[in-house]
């Protein structure tokens, strides 16, 4: 994963009110019901919403335009279990820390970077029908674990905008009790952020794990009847193996099975907590190893008929995360693994890399989705790489969302733009421009035919 988190590699310098008849189902919690403590500090009034930035300059919408679903109450599970029906993109937000971020780069907060209705409308105009919200969970990171009112209000606002743009949404929790945003960015601890920002006690603390389940029960109770919320992604990139420095999946399982570090041993408790209040909304569960494809076989499916297993596909990292000076082409010959001899990497290798998805589905008869995938915009042959990859995902019948859809927030482009495919392959370019990678994405998004029903503004 990149953008504001560089796929756990470094720099961070990086939701719906349904009108009239749907309002009651989607109304926010009354202020009195939301505690006023945030991260152990007294919450201040939310910062004023930033002025909407100009919408991106975009090509014309794809043709034909997607057909609406006949009802906003259409079966959400069918979206995941009947082939590729959701083709989308990620948005990203995290809490703004003024001592670290200032108040400009990611906006004034409390979460940033700021997204406007124009950003969601522009995304929908590309043919996208699903937006994956890679965002903080609704509870505080530090005890006492409780709903964070600023996060709740922000997610509600983002959901409003997504619904107006007729986009399905998956809520993906980057943070929660005992896990801060910086756990995904842990290699930067002591470098570009203080070590004190790194909180990842959830793997050692049973109380934090119980609170993580309580967070998702609260979230599901709040959004169970929202017709655009089609999935709950329990944790973005589980990564306990990085904490214990074990990168071989089999070795990790052998050493840490049934301990707090073993995600597969305690995510079923979260599923059970959700099902107490929401029996229908699909639940998405990523695998360990930052949800890398080669960790998928270590997952143990839970006994629930509406669970989707997910991976994040950025392999090979040497190609997808290369810097402009590397010039590693696709297809081409280069060191696929660090320190290894150069070898040819082309479509057949890419297909083989995705084989664990097919194997896992065949073994357990469960759906798999790729809710993050992408490549830095300047990688030579990035358009061919993503064309081959998305074509294989279509053949496998999985839903996918690319990383990522950036907001039109001008300060952001100065420091975070590597995965902003709208800018083209020139690393120095900071304006939207037609380009081959963007064209590939739009061609696949144009296959979408399903959207939530329109709502009144």
- Tally of individual domains: 1
Average the pLDDT over all residues and give the rounded result. 87
Main sheet record: 8 strands, parallel, barrel
Shape: globular
Distinct helical segment count:
14
The CATH topology corresponds to: TIM Barrel
The CATH superfamily appears as Glycosidases
The count of DSSP E runs of length 2 or more, i.e. the number of strands, is 14
What is the architecture at the second tier of CATH? Alpha-Beta Barrel
Radius of gyration: 20 Å
User: What is the top-level CATH class?
Assistant: Alpha Beta
N/C terminus separation: 34 Å
Strand portion: 5-15%
Low-confidence stretches: 1-73
* Adjacency order of strands in the biggest sheet: 3-6-7-8-9-10-13-14
Helix content: 25-40%
Judged by helices, strands and strand pairing, the structural class is alpha/beta
N-to-C order of helices and strands = HEEHEEHEHEHEHEHHHEEHEEHHEHEH
Describe this structure in words.
This protein is α/β, with parallel strands linked by helices and 457 residues long. The protein has one domain (3-445): Glycosidases (TIM Barrel, Alpha-Beta Barrel), CATH 3.20.20. The chain is 28% helix and 12% strand. It is built from 14 helices and 14 strands. It has helices at residues 23-26, 78-81, 98-101, 117-125, 149-164, 206-223, 240-243, 249-256, 263-275, 317-320, 347-353, 355-364, 382-396, 436-445, and strands at residues 37-38, 41-42, 87-92, 94-95, 111-112, 130-135, 168-173, 229-233, 283-286, 307-313, 332-334, 343-345, 368-373, 400-402. The protein has an eight-stranded parallel β-barrel, surrounded by four helices. Strands 1-2 form a two-stranded antiparallel sheet. It has a two-stranded antiparallel ribbon with strand order 4-5. A hairpin with a 2-residue loop joins strand 1 (37-38) and strand 2 (41-42). The protein is globular and about 50 Å long. The two termini are 34 Å apart.
């Amino acid at each position: 994963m990149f953008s504001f988190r560089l796929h756990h590699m470094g720099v961070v310098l990086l939701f719906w009110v349904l009108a009239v008849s749907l309002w009651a189902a989607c109304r926010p919690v009354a202020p009195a019901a939301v505690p006023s403590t945030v991260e152990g500090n007294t919450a201040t009034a939310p910062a004023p919403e930033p002025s909407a930035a100009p919408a991106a300059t975009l090509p014309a919408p794809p043709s034909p335009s997607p057909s609406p679903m006949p009802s906003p109450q259409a079966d959400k599970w069918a979206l995941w279990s009947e082939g590729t029906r959701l083709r989308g993109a990620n948005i990203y937000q995290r809490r703004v820390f003024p001592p670290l971020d200032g108040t400009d780069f990611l906006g004034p907060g409390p979460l940033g970077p700021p997204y406007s209705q124009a950003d969601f409308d522009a995304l929908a105009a590309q043919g996208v029908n699903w937006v994956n919200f890679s965002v903080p969970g609704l509870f505080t990171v530090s005890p006492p674990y409780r709903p964070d009112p600023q996060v709740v209000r922000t997610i509600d606002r983002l959901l409003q905008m997504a619904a107006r743009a007729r986009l399905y949404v998956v809520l993906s929790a980057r943070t929660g009790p005992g896990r801060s945003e910086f756990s995904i960015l842990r290699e930067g601890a002591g470098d570009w952020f203080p070590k004190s920002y790194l909180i990842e006690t959830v793997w050692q603390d049973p109380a934090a794990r119980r609170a993580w389940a309580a967070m998702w029960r609260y979230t599901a109770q709040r959004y169970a009847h929202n017709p655009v919320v089609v999935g709950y992604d329990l944790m973005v990139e589980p990564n306990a193996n990085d904490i214990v420095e074990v990168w071989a999946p089999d070795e990790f399982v052998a050493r840490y099975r049934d301990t707090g570090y073993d995600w597969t041993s305690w995510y079923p408790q979260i599923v059970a907590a959700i099902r107490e209040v929401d029996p229908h909304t699909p639940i998405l569960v990523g695998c360990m190893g930052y949800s890398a494809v080669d960790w998928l076989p270590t997952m143990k499916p839970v006994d629930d008929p509406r669970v989707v297993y997910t991976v994040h596909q950025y392999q090979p990292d040497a190609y997808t995360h290369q810097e402009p000076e590397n010039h590693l082409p696709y297809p081409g010959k280069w060191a696929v693994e660090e320190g290894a001899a150069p070898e040819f990497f082309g479509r057949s290798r890419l297909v083989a890399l995705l084989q664990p998805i097919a194997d896992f589905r065949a073994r357990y008869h469960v759906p798999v989705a790729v809710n993050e995938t992408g490549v830095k915009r300047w990688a030579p042959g990035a358009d061919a790489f993503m064309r081959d990859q998305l074509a294989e995902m279509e053949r496998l019948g999985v839903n996918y969302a690319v990383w990522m859809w950036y907001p039109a927030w001008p300060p952001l482009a100065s420091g975070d733009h590597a995965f902003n495919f709208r800018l083209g392959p020139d690393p120095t370019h900071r304006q939207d421009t037609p380009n081959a990678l963007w064209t590939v994405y739009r061609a696949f998004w144009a296959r979408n035919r399903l959207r939530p029903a329109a709502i009144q503004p």
